[in-house]
Protein: tRNA N(3)-methylcytidine methyltransferase
Amino acid sequence: MMEGTAAEYHSKDFEWEELRDEVENDASLRYHIVPFVASSSSSSPSSDPPPDDADAWRSFHRRHSAGKFFKERRYLLKEFPELLCSGNSIQVLELGCGNGSTILPILRAKESIVVYACDCSEEVLQRAKEIVATTSGVSLDHRLHTFLLDFTVHKFPDWLFCSSCQRASFSKPVNLSSDSREQKLRKLNAPSFLREEQCCIGGVDFVTLIFTLSAIPFQRMSSVIEKCFFVLKPGCLLLFRDYGLYDMTMLRFLPEQRMGFREYMRSDGTFSYFFSLDIVRDLFLGAGFTEAKYKHDRQVVVNGPPTSKQLLLWAV
Structure:
């Protein structure tokens, strides 16, 4: 699929089962599917990753500071029309926003959408704000709020959905007296856009995980998904799109870049994981989500190889 306004959108250009058979019967690709055995020179997938693994992505963003590495994802609304069908005052949390390639089409979709975007790189957050602020044709910057966060390690800030409002939303008793001091303390770290009477924004309507989950070590994925669950309002959606098993990106990795079961490390130290439907379901159902919609995108890139993407919606 080509990026750009003139691109055609396809969701099924080939049969995934044929690609699977081709890969699994190719002896030169066998190393992708045999059981993984950690060598003395590689990290075991069961061991804890180094605490500074996000440094690889910070370095990546510094190398691509011009913000042109990732193109705007203009196909996003075709894949997730739910963003257009929602009512007024829509609040979206974008995880791993990078240079804003996912943010722009969401902000363009409706003037009632506000996006809260986080990343582990302060430089790329600044670049995302600059790109949005200078986008021609419509004023978008007042509807974008960025914040620095390595969500693989730290929890989301309380101003997104404080514990009192979470319990109230799920019809559980709320001890206002015990929470009053907590709320006052939280206000000290509250962002400027939060109104004086607000303890938090009351949760979000959508969380977007667009090619983000695959970029973190597998053993941290469950924790990240659980955090997403608790920041969503009841009945709202998580939008997920990421690499599927046997994507050509996966098949380009060399044997020595394999770090675990379907997990690889690029030469710059960044991770990449490739999902099967069963793994995705286990991760999200285990965090409390229910499956709302699933589609497996199978696309042939113009002047390029087949790609396999997992596209799902998960509801609280």
Observations:
- Residues 75-263+273-290 form a domain with the Rossmann fold fold (CATH 3.40.50.150).
- The longest helix spans residues 176-188.
- The mean pLDDT is 79.
